[in-house]
Design brief:
The protein has helices spanning 11-22, 35-38, 48-53, 65-72, 90-102, 132-142, 157-183, 190-205, 207-217, 228-244, 253-264, 274-278; strands spanning 4-7, 28-30, 57-60, 81-84, 106-113, 125-130, 147-150. It is α/β, with parallel strands linked by helices and 280 residues long. It has a seven-stranded mixed β-sheet, sandwiched between helices. It is elongated and about 65 Å long. Bound molecules: ligand FVH. Residues 8-13, 31-33, 36, 61-64, 67, 70-71, 86-87, 112, 115-116 line the site of ligand FVH.
């Protein structure tokens, strides 16, 4: 019996397989398009059922949750530990855990915080949640391609951490796009702005800690150094600058609108943390 089965050899699954093979594991693999499995140097199963039968630990990394259901439909999962690294929503992960449990499998959901080239490097990590027993049993195998971060028994919490962090990343991407758009028509090289931007964003990322503390205490005035009122007063300058540079402010205005709403509610002496509550 192989120690691991890996179902799904897209860009991510192939990177996972390569990391396990490089570390001396011998995962049994299956992929819908068989050609992607053939030159890996791993045993290739003919069917998903054969792949699942080959190992107690079954790792799935497919495009989406519907694919997981389609591939594992009718496959005997009794006694297996199913680790699903397919990106999904928290509700999909909980439903998939119940689905696996009803078929006699322990379930772990995983949210991958890496792109394929990062797999096998110290920068890669994966959030896991679900069966603590399954995590303890297989952590030594799961830790080969990426550092493991177990975030609890709720199978939806790995996906929730994954999507929360990626959502913050997209907010950052939006800010970066706006910043580059502002300088685009000027004789300022993007490569000269980039290190300034990266340093500034790294410094400001620490503000997440103050926001978290304020959310936990409910005191949105604690530790405020730049009040909402001061920041709202500056919004017209951001909008005029965008207009002067012929840049659409579309990526910033949703956040500015929420800041205005808080200020209109008389919360100008607070931080911007109240935006979190307005979003709910
Ligand atoms: N690549 C990335 O940067 C991100 C990083 C964070 C995590 N994601 C998630 O990982 C899952 C897999 O992503 P991927 O990069 O491997 O995706 P693809 O290269 O497009 O490969 C998709 C695999 O899924 C197979 N597949 C899709 N639909 C079905 C289906 N209905 N039945 C069976 N297999 C299916 C596909 O098979 P094939 O096209 O080769 O036959 C690939 O193996 C994903 O959740 C990301 O969000 C990656």
């Amino acid at each position: 019996m192989s120690d691991t089965t890996l179902i799904g050899l897209g860009a991510m699954g192939t990177a996972l397989a390569a990391a396990w093979l490089a570390a001396g594991h011998r995962p049994t693999v299956w992929n819908r398009t068989r050609a992607r499995a053939e030159n890996l140097g791993a045993p290739v199963a003919d069917t998903p059922a054969d792949a699942v039968a080959a190992s107690r630990l079954v790792v799935v990394c497919l495009l989406d949750d519907a694919g997981v259901g389609a591939v594992l439909d009718g496959v005997d999962l009794a006694g297996k530990d199913l680790v699903n690294l397919t990106t999904c929503t928290p509700a999909e992960a909980r439903a998939r855990a119940a689905w696996a449990g009803a078929r006699g499998a322990r379930y772990l959901d995983g949210g991958i915080m890496a792109d394929p080239p990062m797999i096998g490097t110290p920068d890669a990590s994966v959030f896991y949640s679900g069966s603590a027993e399954a995590f303890t049993t297989w952590e030594h195998v799961l830790a080969v391609p990426a550092a493991t971060r177990y975030v609890g028994e709720d199978p939806g919490h790995a996906a929730l951490h994954d999507i929360a962090l990626l959502s913050a990343m997209y907010g950052m991407f939006a800010g970066i796009a706006h910043a580059f758009a502002l300088i685009r028509a000027e004789p300022i090289a993007p490569t000269s702005l980039a290190p300034l931007l990266a340093d500034w964003l790294s410094t400001m990322a620490g503000s997440a800690h103050l926001t978290a503390a304020q959310l936990e205490t409910g005191d949105y005035r604690a530790g405020v150094s730049s009040t909402l009122a001061m920041q709202v007063a500056g919004i017209p300058t951001f909008l005029r600058t965008a207009r002067e540079q012929a840049v659409r402010p579309d990526l910033l205005t949703p956040y500015f609108t929420l800041m205005h709403r808080l200020a209109a509610d008389g919360r100008g002496d607070e931080d911007t943390t109240g935006v979190v509550d307005l979003l709910r």
